[in-house]
# Entry
Amino acid sequence: MKFKTLALALILTFTILASFKPSLGNNENKVGNQIDLKSFVPTTKNKNLTLSEEDGSIKLVFKLNDESDLVRLLKNNVTVEASYKNLIQAKVPANALPKIFNSSFILFFKPPSKAIPFAIQSEGVNSIQANLLHLQGVFGENVKVAIIDLGFDISNPEIQSNIVEYKSFRADEDITGGSLENLRHGTACAEILIDVAPKAKLYLFNFETDIEFLAALDYAVNIGVKVISCSIGFVNVGPYDGTSYIDEAVDEARAKGVLFVVAAGNEALEHWSGNFKDEDGDGFHEFYLKDETNEFLAYKGSIIRVFLSWNDWPYSNIDYDLYLLDESSNLIAYSNNPQTGFQPPIEEILFVSPKTSVYRIVIEKTGGEGNAKLHLFNFDFNLEHYVESESLTCPAEAKGSLTVGAVFFATKDIESFSSRGPTDDGRIKPDLTGPDGVSTSSYGLSNFFGTSASAPHVAGVATLLLSVNPNLAPDQIQSILEKGAIDKGALGKDNIYGSGVIDAFKAYNLIKEKRTLEIHAHSIGFQYPNEPSEELDVEIMVNYVSDGLTRNEIVKPISKILVDYGTEASLKIISELTNYSLVEWDDYGIGRVKTQELKLFMNEDKIVIAYFKLLEAFNASKKAILTIHAHSNDFQYPNEPPNEVKAKILINYFEDGLEKSVEKEPIFQVSADYNSIAKLTVTSIPSGFSWLEWDNYRFGRTSSINLTVFVDEEKTLIAYFKPEIEETNMQKDFSLSISPQTQFFFPGQTINYTIFVSSINGFDSEVTFNAFDLPPNSTAQFYPQLIKPNASTTLMLRTSPVTPPALYTIRIIASSNDNIVKSIEAHLEPAVIPSFKPESIISSFIIIIIFHIISLKRRRKL
# Structure
C-alpha cells in the first residue's frame, strides 16, 4: 500500500456554512444532473462571519495605502503579528471592526491564507544518481540552503547536525507548527535534502499564513541563502499566471540570486478549469455536456475543502456562488461572497463529512456581464469531471520558481496526481520532475508520495552543484539541471514532465565537462580559418574556471585551455607588439567586438582570434587630431562636465616625422602623423580624486594609467577619475529610526516596534539591541537581536494581564562592536475602550472564519 500526502494553501476568506439543509428532492432532474437551486438560494448576500480567536478578536490581513499608514491602523487597538511591505497581518478586537472596515487608508482586507504541506536514507538519492556525486567527494559543503515549511522537529537526528539556524515566523513562534502532521512534513522534506546534500548548511523557517511566508522568504534572502526548497502551495491568492503578490516575492528572490525550488502540487485529478458554460440558461455551470454537478466520494470525518476562483482579478463584478450538495442533492454548505467590483473573485467551502458519501459541487452565476474562466480545486478527493492541465498552485506558476513535478522513484513515470501546466499565461510548467514514494524517518518506508518529496530532491542537487561551483547563478543552475535531465513524455520540455527527470550525475558532468578555448592572434590579412605561417607573438591574460576554481593564466597563441562548461572566461592583451595595433576580437561563429577585453560564456568549444593591423610608415603629410580629456566618472563622454579634472597628462607622439612630447592639463589637442603610435601617461592626479581608467572612445577601456593608441583616425581619449569623499568630519556612524514610535495597548497584549539602522559614512559593523525601562511584568525580545546596518529588527514587547494601563517610555539601546552607542525611545499608551458595545457589532456584522491546516495521506493504487 502506498500513500501520498497532500498540501495546499487555504485562502480562508469569508466562507459561509449553511445553517439549514433544504431538500432538493423535487427539484432534481435526473437527466444530466441538472438542478434548480432557486427555491432555497438566499435573495441577499450573507455577510455573517464568526470571530476566530478565543479572546473574541479576529485575525485579518490588511493592504495599506502606504506603509506609513501602519500608525493609523495601530490606533484601532490591533496587534501586528507579521508584515511584508504594505501587507499587515494583525489581530483585531471585535469592537474595532466597523471603524477599520470603513477606513480610507485600507485598500482591502481578508483573512490570512494558510498553507498546507503537499503530501516524504531516501531511495531518491540513488534514483537520481546523487550517490555517484558522493563517491566523487561532492556533499554540498558550505552551501546555505533553506527549507520554508509548516513545522520541524529540530531534534531529529537525521538533520540536527546540519542545522545552522531555525526560526518560526508564526505568531505563536512554534517551530513544530502546532500539529504532528506539520512537524512531520517539514522534517521529512529536510531529511530528503540532507540525504542528497549531506554537508549542506541547513536553515529551517516555518510559518502559518501567507504574510508569515513572505516574511520568512524575505529573511532567507537577506541572510544569504542560495537555495530555498518549498513544498507548499496557495490557492485563491491571485490569477494563476505568475502575477500574484506571492509570485512577485518569489521573482524578487530569484533576481537577488536565490534559486527557489517549489513543489508543483498534487491536484491533477482534483482540479477543473474552463469557461463558465450555461447552455440551458438556468444560471448553473455545466461541467460536461449537460451535467451541472461535479461528484466526488469523501470519507466519514474527512474535511471537504472546495475553492473556486475566476479570471477577473483583482476585483470582480462577475458574481459566481459555490454550493455543496449531498448524494440526495440536499444543500449542506455554500459560499456566496458578493462580487460587485470591490471584492476578489473567490468562493470557498470547508465542511466536515459526517459519513462516507458522494457529494456534488455546483456553481451558479448570480450577477455581472460576461463569462469568466473558472478554476475549481477540491483537495484530497478526485473529481468526477477533472482537468489535469493548468492544475498548478501558487507559487508553482511563478516566473522565478523552479517548479518540480512527481515521478515514482522506481519507474520514473509521472504520478497521476502530479499537477501540470501550462500557466494561465501560457508558460510551460513544471520545469523538472523528481522522485517520490521514498522513505524517511518521519513517514516510514517508501511512504512519502507527492511533489512535496520531489522538490527537496531537486533542491539538494542544486546544492551539490553550488558546492562544486559557488559562482553559478540561479538561471545557470536551472539551465544545467534541465539540460542534464532525462527526457520523458513528449520530446523536449512539456507540461507534464517539464524538461524531464532530474539526474544529479549528468548535471554534475555538465559542470565538470570541459569546453576547449582555442586562442589565436592574426594579422587582419589572415581571416580564420586561413592560418598565417606563424601566430603573432603577443601575451594574453586569460581568466577562466577549471574544476570549479577560478584561474588566471598568461598565454601566447596558439593556446588551448580546458574550461568548465557553463562558466565565463575573459581575455585581454597585456603586451605591446612593435608595428602592430589591435583591431578587434573575433568570437568565431558568434561575432566580433572592438574592445580591449573579450568576455565569453563557455557553453560550447570556442575559437577566438585577436586581429591586429600592421602599422604603415609614417605619413607626415596626413594628420589625425587626438583630443585629450580628463573627466570625473560622473560625466561619461560625450557628456561634458562644467570643468575638466585638473590632472596632468604626458603624451608622446609623432608630428612631421619627429617625436614630440606635451605635458599639460586637458582639454587639449595634438596633431599626430597618420599611422603613427601615440603614448599617454597620467603624471599628476589632483587632490580629491583617484585614478579610474582610460577610455579610447568607441574602442575600449583600460585601468592602466598608460595608454597606447594607433593613430589611424581622429581619436578622443578620456582619462577618468573617481572623486574621493573628504575625510573631514566623515567619521563612520549609524542612526536609528523607529516605526511606529507610539503604540496603544491593552494589558496582556503583545506589541511590535520596527527599528531601522542606517549607515553613515560607510559604517558596516554589527549592532546589538537591548531594551530598558519596560512596563511592569513585561518582557522584550528583538528579532534578530544582532543586525548589520541598513536593516531592521523587530522589538516584540509582551505585556502582562496585570500590567497597569499607563504611559510608558521604553529606552532602546543599540551598541556596535566598535563601541558606538545610540538610543531611541518607544512610547506605550493605554488603549481607549470604545463607548459602543461589542454585542451591537456582532449582531449586525458577525464574521465566520474557519482556519484549518491538514496533511492527509491518500491511498495510491499500484
Q: What stands out?
A: DSSP finds eleven helices and 54 strands in the chain. Residues 732 and 763 are 5 Å apart (CA to CA). The chain has a mean pLDDT of 83.
